[in-house]
Design goal:
2 helices, globular, six-stranded mixed β-sheet, D-tyrosyl-trna(Tyr) Deacylase, Chain: A, alpha/beta
């Protein structure tokens, strides 16, 4: 499972004219699910999202507090293109991405696990063409890959 996590001042997802998810200060998570992913990957990535310290502390110390500690929110957007492979040519291959039914179930599991923390979690719309708007705070962008958790 791969997650691109961005610290944001605000973020919003639109499908057509409809806003499906919107947050203020917090984390925008672009989430890709791989063919080999399972419940362990969900727990690993959810824990990292919950605990990653990318917000300034009250004493001004950089990268000192988590999204939970600042009372922030998380916006999770499915993005299978995180598994795009362009090693053989110019058109990406998505063979390593999980099939839609599997990906949807694991995506929903991750959202459920974050909400259980509890964290305020907004979402995009699975398998929809979405417009994602964000104000990247910093910018701070971190890659989480559950297969590199050695």
């Amino acid at each position: 499972m791969r997650a691109v996590v961005q610290r944001v001042s605000s973020a919003r997802v639109r499908v057509g004219d409809r806003v499906t998810g919107e947050i203020g200060r917090g984390l925008l998570v672009l989430l890709g699910v791989g063919r080999e992913d399972g419940p362990g990957d969900v727990s690993y990535v959810a824990g990292k999202i919950r605990d990653i310290r990318v917000f300034e502390g009250e004493d001004g110390k950089l990268m000192d507090r988590s999204v939970m500690e600042i009372g922030g929110s998380v916006l999770v957007v499915s993005q299978f293109t995180l598994y795009g492979d362009i090693r053989k040519g110019r058109r990406p291959s998505f063979d390593a991405a999980a099939p839609p039914d599997t990906a949807r179930a694991l995506y929903e599991d991750l959202v459920r696990e974050l909400r259980a923390v509890p964290l305020p979690v907004a979402t995009g719309e699975f398998q929809a063409m979405m417009d994602v708007e964000l104000v990247n705070d910093g910018p701070v962008t971190i890659l989480i890959d559950s297969k590199r958790n050695l």
